[in-house]
TrEMBL record, chains A, B, C, D:
The protein's name in its UniProt record: Medium/long-chain acyl-CoA thioesterase YigI
Signal peptide: none
Residue intervals of the Thioesterase domain: 50-122
Substrates-to-products reaction catalysed: a long-chain fatty acyl-CoA + H2O = a long-chain fatty acid + CoA + H(+); a fatty acyl-CoA + H2O = a fatty acid + CoA + H(+); a medium-chain fatty acyl-CoA + H2O = a medium-chain fatty acid + CoA + H(+)
Top-rank taxon, per record: Bacteria
Record InterPro entries: HotDog_dom_sf, PAAI_dom, Thioestr_dom
Organism: Pseudorhizobium banfieldiae
GO MF annotation terms: fatty acyl-CoA hydrolase activity
Key words, A-Z: Hydrolase
Amino acid sequence: MDDTDDFRERIRQSFGRQPAMETIGATLTRIEQAMVEIELPFDPKLTQQHGLLHGGIVSTALDTACTYAAFSVIPVDASLLTIEFKVNLMSPGRGERFLFHGEITKPGSTIIVADGRAYAISDGPAKLIASMTATMMVVRGREDIVG
Amino acid sequence: MDDTDDFRERIRQSFGRQPAMETIGATLTRIEQAMVEIELPFDPKLTQQHGLLHGGIVSTALDTACTYAAFSVIPVDASLLTIEFKVNLMSPGRGERFLFHGEITKPGSTIIVADGRAYAISDGPAKLIASMTATMMVVRGREDIVG
Amino acid sequence: MDDTDDFRERIRQSFGRQPAMETIGATLTRIEQAMVEIELPFDPKLTQQHGLLHGGIVSTALDTACTYAAFSVIPVDASLLTIEFKVNLMSPGRGERFLFHGEITKPGSTIIVADGRAYAISDGPAKLIASMTATMMVVRGREDIVG
Amino acid sequence: MDDTDDFRERIRQSFGRQPAMETIGATLTRIEQAMVEIELPFDPKLTQQHGLLHGGIVSTALDTACTYAAFSVIPVDASLLTIEFKVNLMSPGRGERFLFHGEITKPGSTIIVADGRAYAISDGPAKLIASMTATMMVVRGREDIVG
């Protein structure tokens, strides 16, 4: 797996090219092979009508965590497309900050399945607020989709 | 269904209390009973690493369209929680603007199922880029979750 | 699309090689390009603990309807694998017979997305009992997976 | 949680009233609080056109494992309805027998989320073939839906 030795650097660079991550204030806080974490401080501009973190923003961060977990194991000349994902919103998106953990459940040369979990963090124990299962496709040779 | 006569105004007000919608630049462009549409101009700040609209932002707008489609049929003293949704990302999020259409597939007093479709619009025909199925729960008597 | 001219016959043959369809008593009742229907009489042996058609059996028939809807548009030397599906069970599986309708929402050379709907039929109007979104992958050159 | 002390017996009884489980040859092999396992020998009558265990049968067994995992924590006078589930089919359903593991991810008084995993077992290590996330609703006072 020589060609993924530099996956941390490639993930950081790719993440840095995602303006949506800057817009929602997300940062990469952990990169391991097959596992990535993203964090987000609570920000009122990301809330829905009840003042809670919008479920769509939860899914934006989870999708990104799952995608980069998968990214860590693909060849350097390949990229990924998210085909689909499902999110269960289990508790209100209320907290000082949020942790989004993505990891590979099933690697593959064409299809990679990843699972994610989102946690709200304040004082006290982290609270599970959402889970995701995402299906990604490994793509090669598409010049419009690189990294 | 007297108590939903003013659903258009209630939806506009609730939408106006969603900072996340302002952050992504979404506007309500159609409100019918059991069907709502939201539009979004393309904005580079919402893109992922390939310059396409982030799948999470697609799901944020679809979730909102589905939620308000459901909102149009619930009693005035009730509110909605999205329990879960699934998104299929079918074509790249590339276009001048995007249309998100949500409609109720199965109404209910406790559980409402809605389906959404997202389209990219430029010159030429609208292009289907994503679909969603969302499950919402009707909640009452929770003072922290109103409207 | 010359090579799909005989899709009806290929679908009938493939369906006939699915013992699971015989086990649940399903029959193909409609084959169009991009759209397939399957029917099933109510059978107590397929029920769950409340005497209703088991949700897993609903998904078995819907998955098959969606798969053959996709099958109708792929090349003759290709086959399909269901990558994932989601089912919403919206009303109890109670009826004299059940109709499962699958159709393609998004065709593609690698990934095909299909949607399905299940109806319970007795006297009176057909009742929507479930919906499915399924993601299929077109595969070629795998001798273990043909037709 | 006195009223769930006898959850093992109640689960066995409810499982025994599911003709679909007998039809597919499934047996309950493990019942713990919040976790249930079901097993199934390979049977050609449950296969699809490639001779593999049908994905719908995989989902039938996973749905049942997830439902009884949830069943173990609800009050004795309550029952469960599966609202929706998503299945990812990750490897072919090929093996001597299959193990379906369901466990609660998020308990709740109204909504319970459970996750399931399916494994194919032959000689050698168990192989993960599918995962499920299922959303169940706790229902009371519906005489047509008991146990």
